[in-house]
């Protein structure tokens, strides 16, 4: 089992990051990229999910880069436990950014449902990795809207095939969400739709001619009313409920 490594003395005001991956070379490479940025600091590294949970208690990171496939405890279980602990404590950090490959696409929806704030391919461009960490730290889950939408659609199609459903998803919203969707105001519904289409808080503020603070208030209300913990979970709900359909531009509420 890979040994955990803790790093102390981060600069005040830095975004504190824990990297969890069972491959030491990948951990070190990610840390080097992140530590090169003046506002990012890798405070700890872990070789499995169990070590990650222990180091979270010790180093209090803002963001966790979480591999999915790890020994002892995988990233899905660790992410779910982080989310559960955050809810119990009434906090939103650390945010979890899942590291995946297209070979792991069947796990992506599970990671999102477990509470991950977003996900990236392991071979992503370093600049996108840095932007992603900053994005989930400030609450913008969808760090690569186009890739996120495509990957979510592929995952849902795979899930449908595994479930043995030959027909396309129904146009009507999933019955599990009808009551909750009905609790959203018109502006909150609009926010949900544009989140599903990949807009960040800043993009939403510009499009709707409101402040980012107002957008964040609406997003928080959407998540609260739907019983969700992250924006990316809201996007999955939008697809599952038929509000936004894969490959279509239409928005459906009834």
From TrEMBL:
The modification 4-aspartylphosphate is found at residue 67. Residues 16-137 form the Response regulatory domain. GO terms for biological process: phosphorelay signal transduction system; regulation of DNA-templated transcription. Gene3D superfamilies: 3.40.50.2300. One of its GO terms (molecular function) is DNA binding. Residues 177-242 form the HTH luxR-type domain. Keywords: DNA-binding, Phosphoprotein, Transcription, Transcription regulation. PANTHER family: TRANSCRIPTIONAL REGULATORY PROTEIN NARL-RELATED, TWO-COMPONENT RESPONSE REGULATOR. This is Response regulator transcription factor.
